C-alpha cells in the first residue's frame, strides 16, 4: 500500500487508477489509503464544471486541460457525466479529441459512474478527488452534466464552480429557476460565435446585477468563449485564477473546504451506521420490524425508534 | 389530532391536506399521526405510474381516475413529477382537464415537491401514501416522471408499477437500458393511434419474451391505449386488477409491502441518527472534525469513526 501511494505520488497512472478503483468499490483498505492521502488535503484547486447537455462541456474541459498544461500545471479530470465522452454517452469526435491528452503524463482523466443518480455525483467522488490531490494534481476538473441536483452537488465539492451556457438554449432563464445564479462563481457563455451569444451574455450580466452583494463579496465573472476554436479559454483560466486569489485572500477557501469535509465525514458516518443497522440481531432486526409495520402492528416511526435503540 | 384523523377518515379534503403537509414538513406531531394511521396499513392498492416526459402520464392518470371512480373506488393521486400539471410544469390544458375531479369527494389529488431530486421521490412520499390509505382511498396513484432513479423508487413504493411508452420515442430500447423491464408490471403503449405504436408494442413483447420466468411468475402485461380519447383505459384497469389478484394469490403482495416498510423504517432511522450526529457536543463535533480533515490532520474515514463513537 505505501508503495502504491508512493507510485501514485510520482504520477504513475496505473497506481492512480488502482487507488480510484479502490475508493469506488469501497475496498477494505480504504481507511489506509485515506490516512496516507490526508496530509495532501488542500493541495489542489478543485474546479467544478457543469451545464446542460450540448453546451460544450467536453470541448471546454479539453481546452482547459490544454491551457492549464501550457502553464505547467498537472491536471486531473473526473467526468461524472452520463453524456460525457468519458462515460460513453457522446459522439466519437469528442472521444478522439480528448485522446490527445492520454499520452501526457501531466494529465489524469477518469470517468466515474453516476450510479443511477442522473447527473448526480457518485458518493466516491470526494475520495477520488483526494486521490488525484495526493497524486500531485494542481488542478482537478470535475465535469458533471447540469440537470437537477448535480450543479448543487458539484458546487459543494468544488473550490470554484463554472457554469457553461450556450446561446439560444434558454439557459439564462433556466439558471435563475434552478438557483444556478447562487452557485456559479464563473459563467462561461460558450459558442460565443453563434447568434444570440451577446443576448445570453447580457441576460446573465443583467441578472447578476439584480442580486445584492456586500463589499468584498465575489461578483461572478461572465466569460465568452468558443471552445471548439480554442477562443476565450485563456480568459476562463484567468477567471479561475482570479477566483482562487479571492478565495485565499478572504478565507473563503478554508470555509468551503471545511464545509466540504463536514459533508464528506457525515456521509461516511451515515454509511457506517446504515451498515450497523443492517447487522442488528444477525441482520433480522430491520426485517422483523418491517413485517410488523406491513401488518399495521406498529407505525414506521415507532419501528425506526426501536431500531435505533438497538445500536 | 384524533379529530383531525377522524375527519380525514371521512374524506374531508382539508384534513387530508393538513396531514400530508404535516408529513411533508416533518411536523413534531408526526409520530402521533403515524401511530393513528398504522392500523390502516395495506388497505389501499398503491399503483406507480411512470414514463418519459411527453408520453401522456397526466392524461392517463386523469382517465384512470375516471375509470376507477366508475367502479366505485376512492382514488388518491400523488403527483411527484416536475413536468406534471399538478406541480406546475405543464401546459394549461392538462391542468384544466384534471380539474373535473376537484369537485369529486371520492378523489384526492396532491402534488408533492421532488425536493431537488429531478424525478426522484420526496422522502415524505411513503408517509403521504399512508395518509391517503388512512383517509380511505382504495387505490393510490403515484405519478412520477421517468428519468434516472425515479422508476426504481416508484417501483419500490408501489404494489403495481405501470410504465408508459409512446411510439417513436425510442422508449422500448431505453427501457431495456435503464432496467425498466425488471420493474414494470404493466406496460402501457399510449398514443396507440399513432404510427409506430404497433412496432413499439411488438418491441416490448419481444423483449419480454427473451427474459426467463419461472412458472407462476408474473408476465408483464402490455396494453395499448389512447388516453386522450379514453381508449384502452378499461384494459389498463383490468390489468391492474389482474396484477392485484396475482399479488394476493402468490403472497408477493406481503413481500413487497414488507420490503417497502423496511426501506421506510431504515430511512427514518437514518434521519434520526443524522440529527443526533449533528447535535453531538452541542453541534460542534462534526464541524471540529471537518476543520481537522480540511487541515489534513485526520482523514475523513478516521473522522467519521470518531464521530460515530460519540453517539
How many domain regions of chain A? 2
The CATH topology of the largest domain in chain A comes to Rossmann fold
For the record, the CATH architecture of the largest domain in chain A stands as 3-Layer(aba) Sandwich
How many helices of chain A in DSSP terms? 14
Query: What are the segments of chain A in which pLDDT stays under 50 over at least 5 consecutive residues?
Result: 83-97, 116-120
User: Termini of chain A, distance in Å?
Assistant: 33 Å
SSE map:
The structure is a homodimer of 311-residue chains.
Chain A lengths: L1 H8 L3 H12 L5 H8 L7 E7 L5 H14 L4 E6 L11 H7 L8 E5 L13 H10 L4 E7 L4 H8 L2 E6 L5 H7 L2 H4 L2 E4 L7 H14 L10 E4 L8 H18 L1 H32 L1 H10 L5 H10 L2
Parallel strand pairs in A: 1-4, 1-5, 2-3, 2-4, 5-6, 6-7
Helix pairs in contact in A: 1-2, 2-6, 4-11, 8-10, 13-14
Amino acid at each position: 500500500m505505501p508503495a502504491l501511494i508512493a507510485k501514485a505520488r510520482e504520477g504513475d497512472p496505473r497506481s492512480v487508477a488502482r487507488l480510484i478503483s479502490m475508493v469506488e468499490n469501497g475496498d477494505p483498505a480504504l481507511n489506509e489509503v485515506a490516512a496516507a492521502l490526508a496530509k495532501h488535503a488542500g493541495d489542489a484547486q478543485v474546479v467544478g464544471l457543469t451545464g446542460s447537455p450540448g453546451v460544450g462541456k467536453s470541448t471546454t474541459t479539453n481546452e482547459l486541460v490544454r491551457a492549464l498544461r501550457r502553464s505547467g500545471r498537472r491536471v486531473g479530470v473526473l467526468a461524472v457525466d452520463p453524456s460525457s465522452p468519458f462515460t460513453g454517452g457522446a459522439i466519437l469526435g469528442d472521444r478522439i479529441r480528448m485522446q490527445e491528452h492520454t499520452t501526457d503524463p501531466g494529465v489524469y482523466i477518469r470517468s466515474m459512474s453516476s450510479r443511477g443518480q442522473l447527473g448526480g455525483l457518485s458518493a466516491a467522488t470526494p475520495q477520488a478527488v483526494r486521490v488525484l490531490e495526493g497524486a500531485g494534481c494542481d488542478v482537478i476538473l470535475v465535469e458533471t452534466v447540469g440537470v437537477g441536483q448535480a450543479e448543487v452537488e458539484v458546487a459543494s465539492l468544488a473550490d470554484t464552480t463554472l457554469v457553461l451556457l450556450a446561446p439560444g438554449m434558454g439557459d439564462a432563464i433556466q439558471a435563475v429557476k434552478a438557483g444556478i445564479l447562487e452557485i456559479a462563481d464563473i459563467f462561461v457563455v460558450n459558442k460565443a460565435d453563434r447568434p444570440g451569444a451577446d443576448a445570453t451574455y447580457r441576460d446573465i450580466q443583467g441578472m447578476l446585477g439584480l442580486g445584492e452583494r456586500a463589499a468584498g463579496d465575489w461578483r461572478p465573472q461572465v466569460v465568452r468563449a468558443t471552445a471548439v476554436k480554442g477562443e476565450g479559454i485563456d480568459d476562463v483560466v484567468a477567471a479561475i485564477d482570479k477566483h482562487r486569489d479571492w478565495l485565499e485572500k478572504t478565507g473563503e477557501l478554508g470555509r468551503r473546504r471545511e464545509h466540504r469535509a463536514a459533508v464528506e465525514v457525515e456521509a461516511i458516518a451515515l454509511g457506517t451506521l446504515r451498515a450497523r443497522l443492517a447487522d442488528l440481531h444477525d441482520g433480522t432486526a430491520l426485517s422483523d420490524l418491517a413485517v410488523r409495520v406491513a401488518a399495521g402492528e406498529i407505525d414506521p416511526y415507532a419501528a425506526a425508534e426501536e431500531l435505533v435503540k438497538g445500536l
